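Quick one:
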Amino acid sequence: QAQSDPHFPYFSEGENFYNPAAMNRDGRANVVGSLSMQMRGYTNAPVTMFVGANTALPFWKQRHSIGVGLLNETAGLFTNRRLLFDYAYKIGIGKGWMNIGIQAGVMSEEFNGGKLKLETQNDPAFPSGQERGTVGDLGAGVLYVRDIWYLGASAQHLNFPHVEFGKGQGNTAVMDIKPTLYLTGGCNIALRNPLISVQPCFLAESDLDFYRVDLSVRGSYQYDSALFYLGATYSPGISVTAMVGGKFMDVLIGYAYEFYTGGVGAKNGSHDLMVSWQTDVDFFKKGKNVHKSVRYL
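Output:
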């Protein structure tokens, strides 16, 4: 009955995992990697890894953006893998602009029945080996950006993925993935001190049964290309997360620890590591080299 998508504290860095339109927000190419180790101290606790990249294409005023992502998650005896492809198109609206994005991918679910510890051996109700099912996956989203703020909405698993395990082997198990809705937003607030800024943001998600809201804020200190930040996230009824990180030479590194406020307890929280790299999109430089001669000076 739980949600099928993993949750990352650094959702603003890997936002196109949730929303295919959340690309090219700052006009730069972005590569991000995230590792989430949840509920430490428990046996077979979930471990999630995501690697993604996206960029604007250098033609037609960079209106086209593409992205790719790879997710690998292990939880208990289950392994969830997803390969994602994103495309977004930018249009100008008023004093801002909007991205309209679509996402297509492949979802693979695997169950390792060989590691089951059963009271009755060779129980036909349980698989004795690895069972795997693969299905296509679709998503879509929009993102509006204006001045210092942005707002996005998206939906994942629009095709209601139906995964079958052990198909054609007599015993068939099924997993139905429900669509999940996301709403994101944030802004960048400059203070009187030009070296300090504040970045509040939020992520709300729901599959109409499960729901979660994350309210996050960071305080950043930036001098030239170096940046340092501290932040916190509050998820009502679930957890409080502390974040720390820095950026140097376009490489952003962050660490977060999620303290669960429910029955799991603070000592069995989640560790999250994030690394991202950004660069300007300049595949084809315009203009010609300028040559001058001292004879005309």
